[in-house]
Amino acid sequence: MAASKIMSNAPMYSLDSSLRDLLNDDLFNNHGKSAKSENDERNEVFQECLNLFIKGEIKDCLERMYEAGFIHLGIFKSNPMILDLFVSACDLVSNFNELGLTLKGEVLNTFTLDHPRCIEIQEIILKDLNKLLIINKLFRCCIKAIQSGGTEYMERERTILDVESEIRNFILAYTTKMRTTVDVFGLQELIEIFIFQVQVKLEHKKLSPNLYWALCKTLPNLSATLKGLHLLKNESIEDAILNSIDTKIQKNLTKSKTKSKGMKQKIHHFQEPLLHDDAKVRLKADNAYRKRNSIDIGKVDHNETIPRKPQHGITILVGSFWTALKNHFTKRMRQKI
């Protein structure tokens, strides 16, 4: 079972433990009706941002954080929970290009691996293995930063390899330090991020179980570890990952067949009737042309007249009739003279 299926019953904008802690943090509690300190003002703004996040108004949340000066390395260092909220919000943005130009620049600086801000943020987040779900969000945001474009081809390829290396190394470091069900789920999710988003979407590799087995070759203890871990009673994490790959392959095949069938129907609907009708029109025109211009030479009489079809058993020689009539009147005129 895919990691996404396991969490399907969770609210779309649910908070992990670090964000729930944020709600109870002393820094962000009201202090009565006393004169507002800087922390009180920051608290009000942050509560506003947090409420926007919980309601699913993600872009507004990020805009408000930017306006309040929260997207700043000093703020992130002094209170990692603010960083957690920022990363969680960015993770829910489907495409960074949808953000305003200035905000987009701040976000890309945060999630471009070789940018000084991103390097500092990695040190804050990656050193705390208790935050694997936030770590996964960080990696997904780094992937989206690459997908947003704006970099040269060679630089993009180098950045993709950097992300791949970072995730692989983190998987290796984390396999020996899992303690809770959340840790196990987080590891499965991270491996699926590595396969589906890095190798398939960014590197354009064909989706196959071989991608998982290739990862296991570079991390020798990975397969044995995942076989011994279970989120479901009768399914190991390794089985869940392989089943997720197979499900995705079948889904892609179905989508491809449906698309192909739809294209064939469009071709049949728009082209075949036109060709058919056109052929009919041409055939009628050709027959009419032949009928008008065809002459049965064998049936032309000595006066070069063409007999018409019999009407009531009488053949009418059109040319002969008018010739005879003309000769009759000519003869009568001569007799009078």
Structural class: mainly alpha
Give the number of DSSP strands.
2
Q: Distance between the terminal alpha carbons, to the nearest Å?
A: 119 Å
Characterize the main sheet: 2 strands, antiparallel
Share of residues in strands: under 5%
How is this structure best described in words?
There is one protein chain. The protein has 16 helices and two strands. By secondary structure, it is mainly alpha-helical. The chain has two domains: 1-150, no CATH class; 151-270, no CATH class. It has a two-stranded antiparallel ribbon. Strand 1 and strand 2 (235-236) form a beta hairpin. The model is unreliable at 2-14, 31-35 and 295-318 (pLDDT under 50).
Which characteristics define this entry?
337 residues, mainly alpha, 2 domains, two-stranded antiparallel sheet, 16 helices, 2 strands, 1% strand, disordered N terminus
Brief summary:
By secondary structure, the protein is an all-alpha fold. It has helices spanning 3-6, 17-24, 38-54, 58-67, 73-78, 80-91, 101-111, 116-126, 132-147, 153-174, 181-202, 209-218, 222-227, 237-270, 272-293, 318-336, and strands spanning 230-232, 235-236. The chain has a two-stranded antiparallel sheet with strand order 1-2.
